[in-house]
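Q: Could you fold this chain for me?
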Amino acid sequence: MQRQYHNMSVEDREMFAYNSYREKQQAEIARINAHPEQRMKYCFSFIEGADDEMRVKCYNKIAEYSAQLDYSEAHF
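A: Sure. Below is the predicted structure, expressed as structure tokens.
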């Protein structure tokens, strides 16, 4: 039995690599948008190296997302 080897062009490899990267990026965005906790965590990641204007935007979004949190399981 002889095996058939498939040759793939460089352009095809680049396209597959780009598509794979794009799918992972979209999955990460969908995961972040799924829950307010993830969105807040994402905002906190931007605060570290941001300028003042970006910090204000991040803090405003954190306040907005914290209002959406479900505290039904919280024990005080």
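A (continued): The chain has a mean pLDDT of 81.
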